[in-house]
Request: fold
Amino acid sequence: MFYRESGQFKTSYQTDQAIFPIAQDRWFVYAILAIAVFVVPFYIDDYWANAIFLPFLIYALAAMGLNILTGYCGQLSLGTGGFMAVGAYATYKLMTMFPEMNFILIILLSGGITAMVGILFGIPSLRIKGFYLAVATLAAQFFLVWLFNKVGWFYNYSASGQISATRMVMFGFQITGPEAAPAVKYLFCLGFVLVFGLIAKNIARGRIGRAWMAIRDMDIAAEIIGIKPLDAKLGAFAVSSFYIGMSGSLYFAVWLGAAEVGEAFGISQSFLILFIVIIGGLGTVLGSFLGAAFMVLMPILLKNFMVDGLSIMAVTAKHVEIMLMGTMIIIFLIVEPHGFARLWQITKEKLRLWPFPH
Amino acid sequence: MNFKKLATFAAAAIIATPLFATGAKAYELVVPSLDYRTGPYAPSGIPYANGFADYLTLLNEKGGIEGVKVKLVPCETGYNTKVGVECYEKVKDEAPSRSLVVHPLSTGITYQLIPKASSDQIPIHSMGYGRTSAVNGAVFPWVFNFPATYWDGAAVFVKYIGEKSGGMDKLKGKKIALVYHNSAYGKEPIRTLESMGAKYGFNVMLLPVDHPGQEQKATWLQVRREKPDWVLMWGWGVMNQVAIKEAASIRFPMDRFIGIWWSGSEQDVLPAGDDAHGYLSGAFTAPGDGFPLHAEIKKVVYGANKGAGEADRVGEVGYNRGIIAGVYFEEAVRTAMKIHKTKEVTPAMVRDGYESLNLTEARLNEIGLPNFAQPVQISCDNHAGPRKVAIQRWDAKAKKFDIISKWYDTDREITDALIAEDSAAYAKENNITPKCM
Amino acid sequence: MLFLAETVISGLMAGVMYALVALGFVLIFKASGIFNFAQGVMCLFAALALFDFISPGGFMDRWFGFYLPIWLGVIATMGVMIILAWMIERFVLRFLVNQDAIILFMATIGLAYFLEGAGDIMFGSDVKPLDIGIPQGAVDFLLDDYGLYIEKLEIVAAVTATVLVIVLAIFFQKTRVGRALRAVADDHQAALSVGISLHSIWVVVWSVAGIVALVAGIMWGSKSGVQFSLSLIALKALPVLILGGFTSVPGAIIGGLIIGVGEKLAEVYVGPFVGGAIENWFAYVLALVFLVFRPQGLFGEKIIERV
Reply:
């Protein structure tokens, strides 16, 4: 009833190619943005920031990165944890070597360094495909974790090999460190996610994104119509790693504050991000957000519901939680293998006709 | 898609409930337990969590600490750092007293929480794990790591080896291998061992084992080739059991194989069966359930069906560590109540309690734990208390550990220099001016 | 020289242990194109179930007041794995026919979660020493007389693996079901058109994979005790799998041997110079090097691409 396009005429190419061509969508997104920017910061506290919003935003950023590689370009990667580690350790080294450096610049540089590492490990993708490539990216995962664990230079030779973020201040607000206000940390991450979300969306629907999708759908055919697989694949690895590196940087510096490579960037991290991408929807930017929201919120909801709501013992609740997570993943895949983004689209289609579907 | 919205509302409500559901009740002493009863390390986490919970239950059955009841708030971390942080944020402001102290129960989570808890003004007690240089209370006013640190463990093992070899001077030219979990935790003793090696002239051979450590053939082949005189182990989880089995297979003598205390519980040796007979490990509590307190727990707690675990597992090594953590907490709260002359203590007061803690032999006897652990006295310049470690040996026939040595002092000359260096580095990195509170 | 021999033999033996896990992956991938990440958890689950059947205080003991002898326990566990396979087909796979490989892969991760949680709830999280009479420790006379160190358990594992591969080969080549399996592996639709039921074939292949998981679970469980970490051996099997090729049973065995020997040699001879603990990533890098020359693995089916 309310979701009607009738009467909205596109009179220029510009309006026709807008990201949200339908007015209601646009208003909806503006409303969410307004809430995210003007309402949430006033109510956010440590728990909401550290347990929900920061992980959500940071995982969403990482998922966008992996989505570029896996969803748009079709290259399955299980090295996400390792690439996040590159971002985090680059940030740590830059922070300690140049304490005066602008923090935003540090994060961008960390992303850049990760992009270079990503290209390096992306080279085998020119020859290896599918699951074989996935396991090859695991080589990157294990090697990088080993490297950061072993070479003292990366963690400034501290006794235990832990890295901890130094205090970073921008515009008079402390962004990292334990005293940083939750609202500041949240807005900082939100800014990154919004800007780079917009960039990702535009890359994906432009020339480069189309080249990636052509490679994904069939790389030989893509080559024949004049797309260079070398450029497209390595480009995807670079852009994807750039995003993942930035998210690793935020993950370490803003959210956790301290990290140990084996634990924070282990293989389970790679799987988690892959989950987010698949549950959210491969090849959609929106899916990265929906998937991240699901994977961050669901365990906490289940835990709080079972422990506080039903008074189940914490340990049983944890086991049940793992089982339920597994069951839900399977059910979602059965109901909608293309993820939340596709569900959202279907909902919109239905809404157009609602309440008179005939 | 109305049900989706409904679900969202329900979800929001569920998250929000714990935030608002705080009624006015009698004052209680909140202590969270960030335990791990799931995941790969659950076998080590369960006994500890049970011991801690049972001791607090016993306290409450007896009327609480100075008449104030203790409220235990468990939160399952699965030994996962990220979940640990979520747990901490969830429990830290738990009404009515806020969390009086946090036991992170993982070296990784401890590192994560040190800056956070310090700025939230909540003390951390990382009992025999975590950041060793927290011994220096001037840099780490909110962190306590008594009764012993990893570096003390390493120093004591070297002393024990020296004694068995017939004097520290006999260590010259000996070869000591360290088999360690390739993580922050496992790397802790390396510096101490290397410094001591330089001092006493023995060689240190480093053998890292990657998580989880089910396959250690290569490691033990190297032990076979290099033939070290002693093997020390900083292992965790399945790595311990496999290492002990492999050591037995290559016929490495068990009486020359010493594990740190986290590699020395029943769960680590039982799967290796008879092979593990004679395996040594460090200890800061006595094993077994032969103490009056254990009888009392069995009667009062398990008799009333309020036990957290099974009655026949009372007295396991991990369980006893849970008990002693509970005892330390109780005494710290008592001390805090005495210092601040109030029963409604806050985390900051409990920190003062921990810092002035003086747990005497007599008090341990009174609690029902004679000769169970070393008396503890904490001060600002020593947050690690006695720093004494004993060696325990596994008896595979009787299926129990026995303390077989005296309590060794740490090597202060070596460890204190390392602690000063590491804490100074931390202070510099984080702009802390060392100062006693 | 002797030490080199010892390292190589240990590597071969470790390789066999990896291959046991990898076999299960291969069977399922061959028949259904599913990369079954839950294989590691299935090993854990099978070992847990077996332990529960044959120990005092376990499931049988609590409900019926007695527990099974080992051989009966093994058969009962096989039964459990077959039921599990049927349930997986009935409640998961049936709904996911014709989906992308990556979706099926995700579904098996969901399955792994489910089994993990279920295993913990049903059997508890303690370490369970699984002893079904497999000899432990070094082979004494070799160690005493020749100074050569080989573990008995691993010899048993090697023999078991050999028997297993022979049995599987006979099953695939000589039986009716085996032929149907190969037909499905070659071409789903052609198999369907000649009247082979895809559903029942999937149940069969998952059952076989479950039984292979049981064998791997017994071997690894005897080695390190049955506990949660057992599910992580899947990660050790992955490089074996890529090296050998996803679709080849002999590939899994030979891949296992190459990876085993390679990583042990690297760890023992190169490890000390770079700080050790390199075997985990070295296995992957080794596999990667092979892949660069043969992108389908050593024995995998040649990937033919057409526009």
